[in-house]
Specification:
- The chain is 37% helix and 20% strand.
- It has an eight-stranded parallel beta barrel with strand order 1-2-3-4-5-6-7-8, surrounded by nine helices. Strands 11-12-13 form a three-stranded antiparallel beta sheet, covered by helices on one side.
- The protein folds into three domains: 5-278, Aldolase class I (TIM Barrel), CATH 3.20.20.70; 296-368, no CATH class; 396-525, 2-Layer Sandwich (Double Stranded RNA Binding Domain), CATH 3.30.160.
- The chain has helices spanning 24-37, 51-60, 87-93, 108-115, 119-134, 147-153, 155-167, 184-197, 213-223, 244-254, 262-265, 268-278, 300-308, 335-344, 355-368, 377-386, 443-455, 507-525; strands at residues 5-8, 41-45, 69-75, 99-105, 139-145, 172-177, 202-206, 227-230, 296-297, 326-327, 396-406, 419-429, 432-440, 466-474, 485-492, 497-504.
Length: 537
Amino acid sequence: MPSIQLYDTTLRDGAQREGVSFAVIDKLHIAQKLDELGIHFIEGGWPGSNPKDVEFFAKAKSLVLAQARLVAFGSTRRVNVKAEQDANLQALGSAGVGIVTIVGKNSEPQVTQVLETTLEENLSMIADSIGFLKAKGLTVFFDAEHFFDGFKANRDYSLRCLTAAAEAGADCLVLCDTNGGALPEEVTAAVKAAAKISTVPLGIHAHNDAELAVANTLAAINAGAVQVQGTINGYGERCGNANLCSIMPALKLKMNINCVSDAQLAKVTEVARYVSEVANLIPDTHLPYVGSSAFGHKGGLHVSGMMKWAESYQHINPAKVGNRPKILVSELSGKKNIIYKAKELGLALPPKGKEAQKLLEQVKFLESRGFQYENAEASFELLLHRAKPDYQSPFELVDFMVVVEKRRRMPTQENLTGMLCEAMLKVRVGNEIMHTAAEGNGPVNALDLALRKALLQFYPSLTAVELVDYKVRILEESTGTASQVRVLIESSDSVEQWRTVGSSTNIIEASWLALADSLEYWLVKQKRRLPAEGRDE
């Protein structure tokens, strides 16, 4: 057994986050990913509480796990009910796993005010439940619920609860900061006190209500805890649980605790993003270690330092957690940002020439007009291409007109809007000017269709590109409908995604700029070449 045991409860405690509901197949896939990550124990759910978790444990028998062991979760017997007659304990015993975790009260106020029973009955509930499960040959972890709050309210009683669990045969006593309000020094003192009354290994289960779950977990480890409970991305009820994606690299890279291999740790960013995708949640870009902005650099001073010494503004090498640096370009950038980003994109600029300075001035000017390139790297890459003297655009706009006409007094079932949008445009491709028109369900859709009608005759592969997201932001709220607006478009060819930006006081023009950049970027990336004369055959 490793010196530190990693216990993941994403599939149970993490699923208690508002808006998260894992299907059984989702839970099976996540369990497989957690095993690849090097997790030692995977809490699959509470088989005594719902049919989905019963189904999970039945299907999980076919999982082939390299090292992880599945754990079933439940609670101590009910008040004044014999353990062998408690349905929850019976479900745990028949879940088909060799390890179970049961939660029990470890706080005097919780016992008297929530369970509404005596302190002695609660001690019996803990001992009876663990004894019942141990008699079935199971490994039993005891989650000491509300331990740290209970320790402050009545230290002696909380320690008596741990003693009762230990004497009944618990294999690990997991100290829970259930309400997430403990401070690291309080955790340290309580863990050390628990270690004095029993030789049973201790664990830590922290919630993040005071944004201290990771800090409290690391404090508990320093104080002697050996089992770490948490979730991927810190998912969980209220403010979440301790984030294993932060704890694992902290253990291995900061505390020199070899809880996983180098190769396993390098998967943590991939797993974090996979779980957020399965949970149907937008990944938090600013999460430590695994967020896409975790190693983002925007200030010119920072990037200049990074180019001389990679660790100058990074606390670890991002590759160790499967992440990478991200250089941002904005009005706060210096020339080094432009040079670094160009090199990253394979469009190297001379460090001592005027090219980078001119591009920087252009970026600052455009951002003063509402453009923003941090989240529109495709538009920035086009700026680099367009700065080359030999660059030829795959197409050029001559002009366009958009007509929005209300044809019906009231929407009908056939036409819910009662509106007609038509775009007419002229676009030059090589030596030929195409004049096309198209109707759409809105001006942007009509422009998109009209442009594609012209370009598909030259670049039929553009059918692979589709617009997947469209965002509009008003930049000057005080000027009302005359405000400058920024349009951000996200496109995809089913292989990769990219973002482009447009800005104008005219929302249709801003949309056109972003839309045209999107198609031009894809054509450039595909290394399409402008036909010398006429159309491609």
